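A common beginner's mistake is to predict each chain separately and then try to dock the pieces by hand. The better habit, illustrated here, is to supply every component at once so that their relative placement is modeled jointly.
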Amino acid sequence: MQIGELARSTGVKIETIRYYEREQLLPVPQRTDGNYRLYSPRHVEQLRFIRYCRSLDMSLEEVRLLIEARDAPAGSCLTVNALLDEKIAEVDARVNELHKLQDQLRQLRGLCQQPDEVKTCGILMELNRSARIDKAQI
Amino acid sequence: MQIGELARSTGVKIETIRYYEREQLLPVPQRTDGNYRLYSPRHVEQLRFIRYCRSLDMSLEEVRLLIEARDAPAGSCLTVNALLDEKIAEVDARVNELHKLQDQLRQLRGLCQQPDEVKTCGILMELNRSARIDKAQI
DNA sequence: TGAAAAGCCTGAAGTGGCTTCAGGGTCAAG
DNA sequence: CTTGACCCTGAAGCCACTTCAGGCTTTTCA
Ligand SMILES: [Zn+2]
Ligand SMILES: [Zn+2]
Ligand SMILES: [Zn+2]
Ligand SMILES: [Zn+2]
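With all components supplied together, the output reads:
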């Protein structure tokens, strides 16, 4: 199976597949005489594994750790658990941030019901005011 | 006021301030004889404006648009309203994604109560299973 | 007075996770 | 034999910064 078919059957772009190979997340495939990459079912699985982890918001570094853990079946899965706990905490924190952001954005949006002139626009006035009194403090 | 004081009084790193200048988000400051940047209160306000917009998750390109709108007080604020509406929709969508992600992560985490061997770890087994049946489809 | 320390300068490169581009080579069909 | 689909490589671009290398200016204080 060459790279185009792998791409089609996983929904991953060709360039991304080559990128994962460079990053050593996918094992180096065989080559044809014409230097085309040749993939096996094992590659399909590994690529899907990567994409599934990515869909769970894992970084490539974290995916690398998971692959390592998975391929050392004698070890314990402590690191896997820790990684997931950390990820859950991260996502929870991000959701909280975004909830606050939603409130702020909606409140700001409410300050301009119908488009006025810039001079009197509640949104721009509030943005300027916030800048002056330094509401930011991220 | 030189760059260090501006940085201290706004909480923005010196390198970031210089970066904003390169990106033409901050007006070019005066210079001393020794080529040090000299800022005015106007710069402080503009920098705070930028950071407040950034804290609302605006991109620098969007901040640029807001600054333009603000500085053309004769125009209408239609673009500002549209920008905010779009941003609100983006954040809402992201929050929904993250809620789904929270569910998935918690469910996955529940598959390994106490750290086993890798061979029998419910988390790794599920990751492998998901890869095989292609649950991903991001 | 002279040297160390603190502050500032520039341009370039690095970050992550890809995507895009330029400039080719390989292979099957007509 | 040529067209077009497919593949190759290495380099650069994206965003919003951060870091680094190497050097200049100003203040401090012994
Ligand atoms: Zn809320
Ligand atoms: Zn308005
Ligand atoms: Zn919620
Ligand atoms: Zn486990």
